[in-house]
Each structure stands twice: as structure tokens, then as C-alpha cells.
Amino acid sequence: MTFTPTELEVEGAAGGEAGRDGAPAAPPASGRRLARAFLRDRAAVACGVYILLIILMAVAAPLLVKISGYGPLEFDQDAVDPNLGGIPLGAAGGMGADHWFGVEPGNGRDLFARIVYGARVSMLIAISATLLTTFLGVVFGLIAGYFGGRVDMVISRVMEFLMAFPALIFMIAVLSALPAENRQFLLVLVISFFGWPYLARIVRGQTMSLKEREFVEAAKASGATSAQIIFKEILPNLASTIIVMTTLAVPGYVGTEAGLSFLGVGVVPPTPSWGQMIASSVPWYAVDPAYFLIPGAFLFLLVLSFTVLGDRIRRLLGEGMA
Questions:
Q1: Which bin fits 55, alpha (ψ -120 to 50), beta or left (φ > 0)?
Q2: Among candidate residues 6, 1, 44, 37, the one with its CA nearest the CA of residue 311
Q3: Distance separating alpha carbons of residues 307 and 310, to the nearest angstrom
Q4: How far apart, in whole angstroms, are the C-alpha atoms of residue 14 and residue 321?
Q5: Cα–Cα distance between 175 and 187 in angstroms, integer?
Q6: CA dist 6 → 11, 147, 198 (Å)
Q7: CA-wise closest residue to 93 among 302, 276, 297, 281
Q8: d(CA 43, CA 138)
Q9: pTM
Q10: Which sequence ranges are marked TM in the entry (predicted)?
Q11: Torsion of Cα atoms, 98 then 51 then 279 then 183, to 10°
């Protein structure tokens, strides 16, 4: 479930790379032009709106649960029928004025409260892992691609070593052996540890190409240091690729967190998690399908929205550089 970009995606995303004639890349299209193109794309706008709503929902989770009247850890035994094994009372899993999305079977916890707090957990882990992965991937990719030689050999062997592992299996093994405390922090570290080589490989390849261009040679001739060349000459030409790959990485990490929680090695109960909720709904899907469908729909739409948005951004940046 760790995001693995393909070479075809890299080529499509690399709109910011320097031109083939050795000159620096053409300046990116104006912000207004890209904004107009984005707003004309209905799919991109719809995905962006949904992602924004999820982010706002996650940020405003404490306020929303105060309005709804139930917290994510509160039990409402009056909302379930103990004579029928804890099945929610009412239609569609107990949906109504008191419980907008219904309640969990067996314990009566409010689904809406757990959905909004689950969004907070999922977004926090996914975005934090993406930021850390991007930082590590860009830094190590730039260093390996620019300096080459033994430095490149060592970093490349580490990347190949990590990429050779079946990431999900080792994530499960590592997280099973770690303590339950600070599980969200540990999830970010483990996901990032196995995720950074994929971006680093892309950055390394493009850096190796860019460092041979004339504008880099001119910077060297002018007395620029290696750090100045890397961060002022090469890195700006990788901006488009990094933006696209970062956008496409987020849904992969959302899915990874949900999958690990589904398998019982992710977020520890009673902390809400969409993957955890889906796992808990399996025994109940025949009698209360809403308990499965609601978190499943939120997770599916979030992953789909990030994926489509990343693809649209790649296309827009590619057209803007053309």
C-alpha cells in the first residue's frame, strides 16, 4: 500500500526539468493561468472541495461533536437494543436527530463523532508522513544525484535495500513489536522509513541529468558552492515533480494507515480510525450495513479525490510548461 510512482508518472510530472538544450527550465505558467485551468476542470474542483471539507472537518472536530451532542468515546446504550445483541434502534443504523450517522452496534458510540475524529487521525498521519518522506527523499536524492561516486553508491544501495522489502509485511512486523504508546508518531516514522526511497530515486535521476546542463556548469564557473548549486539551481527545476509526487503520495499513506489499523497494528483503540471502524464493522455488515458503508465511503472518496487531484495537477503543470 506504500505509494510507488512509475517512470511514466515521473516523465509526466517532470515539467520543471531544464530544457533539452541545456538552458534552465522555462518559468512556470502564471498562477492566474493555472488557477483558471484548474477551475475549468470540474473533477479537480470537486476533489479539491471534498479534500478541503475533510480537512475542515478534522480541524473543527471538537466543535462539531459539541454541536452533535456526543463525543467519540461516549456510549449511548439507549440507542441500541440489548435484546437483539446491540443492534442500533431505528432505520439505517440508528440515524436520526440525535445521531446523524447512526451509532456503532453493541456499544452505541456516535458514528459522526468517530468519523470526524477519525478524519483528524488519518489526515495527521498521512500529511506528516508525506512531509517527512518528501524531506528525506529530496535531500538524499539531491545528494546522491549531484555528488555521485561513493556517496551515490551508498545511498542507492540503501534505497534498493529498502525497496526490496515487502513494505506492508515489515510494517506489520515492526509495529507489532513496538509499544502501543505514541502509536500515531510511530506510524509516521515507519511509513516514512519505507516510503522515502521511491521519491529519492526520482529526484536522484533528474538531478544526475540536471547537473550536466550548461546553467549548472555556468554556476560552477562563477564560483558557486555545491550547496548553492543544489538549492538555487537544481532544486527549483524539480519543484513541479516534487509537488506532483507529493500530492500523489498522500492517498497512498491514507490507505496505508487505514490498512494497518484494519489489521490491528495501526491506531490503538479507543482512538478513532476509519480503518479500525471498517474492521469492527465486519461482523455487523449483514445486520447494519451503514456501519461499514459510512467509514468506507469517506475513506474511498478521500483516496480517490487525492489521486484524481494529483493527476490533474500533473497534467496542468505539464501543459503550463509546454
A1: alpha
A2: 44
A3: 5
A4: 9
A5: 8
A6: 9, 24, 9
A7: 281
A8: 30
A9: 0.81
A10: 43-65, 121-147, 159-178, 184-203, 234-254, 290-309
A11: -100
